[in-house]
Structures are given as C-alpha cells and as structure tokens.
Amino acid sequence: MSGPGARLRQAMAGGMVVAPFVYDGFTALIAEGQGAQAVYMTGHGTSAQIGLPDVGLTSMAEMVANLGYIAEAVAVPVIADADTGYGNAINVRRTVREYESAGAAALHLEDQVFPKRCGFFEGKQCVPLAEHTQKVRAAVDARSDPDLIIIARTDAVAPNGWDDAIRRAEAYRAAGADLVFVDGIKTLEDMDIYTRRLVEQGVPCLYNGQLLPAPDVAARGFRIMITGGGHALSYAAVRQALLDLKQGGGGEGRDLDQFNAITSLLGLPGIYELERRYATDNG
Question: What is this structure's pTM?
C-alpha cells in the first residue's frame, strides 16, 4: 500500500488539494466525512487546544502527539505544521523523522526566528536565508520515505518585503523543497504578487487563507490550499451554547440525533461489533 505522502502526491496530480484546518482527531473526522481530500494540522489550533497562543510555546512532542492522533483517526493524508523545526538543521532531522513516524504526508518548516509566531501575527523576524536553506536540505535528507512532501515556508513578506521573500522561496526550492509556502498573504495585491512571481514562474506553491474561493485559487495554479477556521468556528459555537445555558436555555444542545451522529462518527458502532465478536459465554 502506498504511504501518505504518495497518496497526497497522487491527489495533487489531479488538481489543487484543499486541506481544511483541523486541530484534533474529532475535527479531522468531520473534515474527512465532508469529503476533504486531505487535512491540515494547524499549529495555531493545536496550541489553542492546550490553551496557549501560537508563539512557540507548544513543543515538538506535543505537536507530534497531536499529529499521531489525527493521522490515526483518518484515512486521508495529513499535512502538518512543523513550526521552525524546533532548532537548527540537526534538530530538523529529528523533527522530520518524528513527523514521518507519526504519519504525516507533508510538513512545512518556516524561516522565523524562534520563538516563532503565527503567520498573521505582528512582530515576526526571519533567520538568515542561508540558515533556513540548510534546514530545508536537512529535512530533505532526513526523510526515509522519498514521497514525504517537504514544504518550505517563508514569513519574510511582513518584516523584509516581497523581494526578500521571493529570494528565499527560490533558494528553498533549489535546496530540494517540494513546495514553497509564502505565509501572511493579507491582500489581493499580495496574492497577485505571489501568483505572478512564483506560481507563474513554475514554482509549486501552497496558499494559506480565504481571500478567494478555492476554484479561483486553483485556477491560479496553486498545488495545495490550506484554509478554514475550525477552532474559530468551535469557539463561536461553544461560546454561544454556554451563553445560552447561562441565560437559562441550552436544551437544544441535548439533541439525541446529534449525539448519535457524533458517536457514530467516532466509531462506536464498530466497537459494538468488536464486543460481539470477542464476547465470551460466562454462563
């Protein structure tokens, strides 16, 4: 059977892959159930899951553990945030091996100074281009499955401008990255520059955001789109449900059909079947 990286490459060969944000096995199952070709383990969402902002406080071990839960829960490929690689090029080698063992189909490494920040936060700084280029090379060398997709991310647009971001993206691609990812795209003008100066020049690229509908992003030639605010939607829904409860309502949340749908999604019918298969007659 082909590995997760091979399956993601096969999906990409058929057109742009849209991978919705997920932050645990449950949200991954929901995305898969809605027909997602792949899912994206967001670092922002993983950090939020343990009650922390996405500013480099979540450890590699915590990220790998969450990746393992997600990869075990779903059959679709998992694209994973690997932050800065959690150190230098030597640390990156271990990071790649840990992520690969946990079931990643792809991972991205960013060129921020540690402690990093979410790509849309203020105050980002980038390491020297040569330093991250070596980290990309180390990542490519470390994978045991050649189909594992290494994505090189640059956060240089905000602190350094587009010219530096383009130089970095081209250098990372030359170092062996399968895709490049310019993060922090906030305007349609940025999107146009990204498209014109990289995608249209033949560089395979990933886009993160919701500036345009997925078909429009695909038409520009992007290979992967990561999108959707799963944890933001969860925040809004949970907050509203608890506000309703506080105000004396909340009965709607105890819908039995919804409860049964959730337990079915989580595999309870399969557990019942296994219990019947392995039951013993104690009589």
Answer: 0.90
